[in-house]
């Protein structure tokens, strides 16, 4: 049921620190991060994670084809970091790569667009609109021929998930009358403070062109958005802070997680595509999985394919994917880093 409110741990392999190198230990292999960045696997041909859509950029979907587009795959601060690009002493290799046009290390706030090919046509459903949403939309909406937004589903109420709500005014002023927002009650309470003028439009000056949003409160049980069944996946995003992942079809999306409650694992059964938080290569933080823990969860959940998201500037796209490619060869674990603009076909 959706309430409409109108406009109102198994043990993880641990890393050890040396003077110049942090070495990451995983069950089958290891790689190093030096001050110059990743040093291992330079000799391996750098794999590129390709879209499985098989179509050209901007090509219309076929009648029965759904897809996921990664609007962002990075942290709240984004990659590259300004502080890294302006550091006069230490050069951050990933951030300098990310400053290059088209580099896959360039990452905006984590989010995806689900293009659902339903019985009434294709619907565009966003998961999260973070503070860099405008920049993501500016790049990817024209590229992929996206004009309307049929719904927005919110994972949690941090700025990198809701900071772009105000930017939706471009759509509600120029493209469509309004946009429905699906959000948990606890996060809606936060929006009442951070975006009070979007929740209670009576406070705005007459004629002010703010976003026209229809807020729908979702419980932690399945609900339907534009004909698509969505199942919340409750997780912890730091001690005592609840965040939601979502399952649609056999795709499971968990972007911000430090712990998966036992009661959530049954909801992940028979997941085919898992999109999972993996902040850094060596360890987890208090609020996010690191790569070692994320891989432990992949082995437990056993999806057919995993795409990691939410990566910080210690995660070099090509080099971590090189390591993951070797892991696939040794263990059969099909996992890669995602990147902004990645487009994959899915069956929903």
Automatic annotation (TrEMBL):
<protein>
    <submittedName>
        <fullName>Hydrolase C777.06c</fullName>
    </submittedName>
</protein>
<dbReference type="InterPro" id="IPR001279">
    <property type="entry name" value="Metallo-B-lactamas"/>
</dbReference>
<dbReference type="Pfam" id="PF12706">
    <property type="entry name" value="Lactamase_B_2"/>
</dbReference>
<dbReference type="InterPro" id="IPR036866">
    <property type="entry name" value="RibonucZ/Hydroxyglut_hydro"/>
</dbReference>
<keyword id="KW-0378">Hydrolase</keyword>
<feature type="domain" description="Metallo-beta-lactamase">
    <location>
        <begin position="108"/>
        <end position="311"/>
    </location>
</feature>
<dbReference type="GO" id="GO:0016787">
    <property type="term" value="F:hydrolase activity"/>
</dbReference>
